[in-house]
Write a structure and sequence with these properties.
The complex is a heterodimer.
Chain A lengths: L4 E3 L2 E4 L5 E6 L6 E7 L6 E7 L2 E4 L8 E4 L6 E5 L8 E8 L9 E2 L3 E5 L1
Parallel strand pairs in A: 2-11
Antiparallel strand pairs in A: 1-3, 3-8, 4-5, 4-9, 5-6, 7-8, 9-10, 9-11
Chain B lengths: L4 E3 L2 E5 L4 E6 L6 E7 L6 E6 L5 E4 L2 E5 L5 E6 L8 E8 L8 E3 L3 E6 L1
Parallel strand pairs in B: 2-11
Antiparallel strand pairs in B: 1-3, 3-8, 4-5, 4-9, 6-7, 7-8, 9-10, 9-11
Classes of the chains: A mainly beta, B mainly beta.
């Protein structure tokens, strides 16, 4: 596709369950980012991939959150033992270069609701 | 921790009016970006400014980066209903973390016909 694609668009899960959120970046983009946007807030940085490796995971709130990008393209954000406070829109973005280019192209997000 | 404060938080105006929104910080940023976000969508990049004092124009939108690279403004001339949306500013980190964007909370603009 032409843009960053995120699936699912919406996810409702019960407290304590495990969820996976998928991001398909723009073809050829080597950098991939995950952000989280809570209601009434701007996006907050979670993790940055350059190729297959997580170059910066300093924004992950705790060890229940983990992300992978095994082939340097699609990425999956994984959340274990979900809590109601994890409810937010999870945004994925990609850019064509790495550290020198911060012009990120965002997907439409996955709205996660933990009940 | 770098923080960006945006003002006003909400703005409702009539079509044809001019407006300015602000983005301020006590920190220096390597770059400053403005995004527009519509409900149910991700932010869409409008502009990137990197040099202190830089001014960029995009049709009816004028963006300015402060001389000290700590603040920015977005001015819209003759606003139209299609300008309605959440305007977010985002600062690029300094040094080796310029990829990491710090976002403000946004200004929610409503332009009434």
């Amino acid at each position: 596709g032409a843009g960053v694609s995120q699936t699912p668009s919406n996810k409702v899960t019960e407290k304590g369950k495990y969820v996976e959120l998928r991001c398909d970046p723009i073809s050829g983009h080597t950098a991939l980012y995950w952000y989280r946007q809570s209601l009434g807030q701007g996006p907050e940085f979670l993790i940055y991939f350059q190729g297959t490796g997580a170059a910066d995971d300093s924004g992950l709130p705790n060890d229940r959150f983990f992300a992978v990008r095994p082939e340097g393209s699609v990425s999956t954000l994984k959340i274990q033992r979900t809590e109601r406070g994890d409810s937010a829109v999870y945004l994925c973005a990609s850019s064509p270069k790495g550290r020198r280019n911060t012009e990120a192209f965002f997907g439409q997000g996955t709205r996660l609701t933990v009940v | 921790t770098q923080l960006l404060e945006q003002s006003p938080q909400f703005l409702s105006i009539q079509e044809g009016e001019n407006l300015t929104v602000y983005c301020n910080s006590s920190s220096v940023f390597s770059s400053l970006q403005w995004y527009r976000q519509e409900p149910g969508e991700g932010p869409v990049l409008l502009v990137t400014v990197v040099t202190g004092g830089e001014v960029k124009k995009l049709k009816r939108l004028t963006f300015q980066f402060g001389d000290a690279r700590k603040d920015s403004s977005l001015h819209i001339t003759a606003a139209q209903p299609g300008d309605t949306g959440l305007y977010l500013c985002a600062g690029g980190g300094s040094g080796g973390s310029n990829y990491k964007l710090t976002f403000g909370k946004g200004t929610l603009l409503t332009v009434n016909p």
